[in-house]
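With this grant's support, we have settled on a layout for protein records. An illustrative entry appears below exactly as we store it:
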Amino acid sequence: NWNVVWEHALSSSNRNLLGARVQWNGSLTETTFTVASLAADERNPSCTAILDDTGGIRPWMVSYEYDNGPYGWDVRCRTLNNTSVLNTLDLAEQFSNGGDEVTPSCDSDGTQFAVVYSIYSVPALVGRLRLSSLTCINGVLDVNEGDLVVSQADTATNYGPRVATNRSSGSPLDDALVV
């Protein structure tokens, strides 16, 4: 199946995330379902393929920006089994980065997930890129390798990174390609 996620704008400050699953032949496996719909704003989703079959559930992951009110934007990662939410991990609770976490992108190598994102600091208006790999055991996300520095802050803003693995089934994080 292809996993698809998108923003559904209820207003300029309240966007929810929806998803669908499509079979390889183009027919819908799962029609529109809710991925995230809190009163807070959720935006800029990215999603992965499902993990390899190891005899248990086969989750997939969505990463997105979450408006944490006075604390700014956080990146959240959420695992799903088909359309059911299994677990949510807030990267700001795992790492103290001192800025807004924005523009996440995620991928899977079949055995784990990777997420890359920008940390945007005001008033300096500089961006730093971070990469984390996440394990998923029985649908529960945990940090495997975390908050790896991809790009240091400089005078330019590093914004909108994307991640893709160079191979499947057990590729170590150093094989992640960030563009």
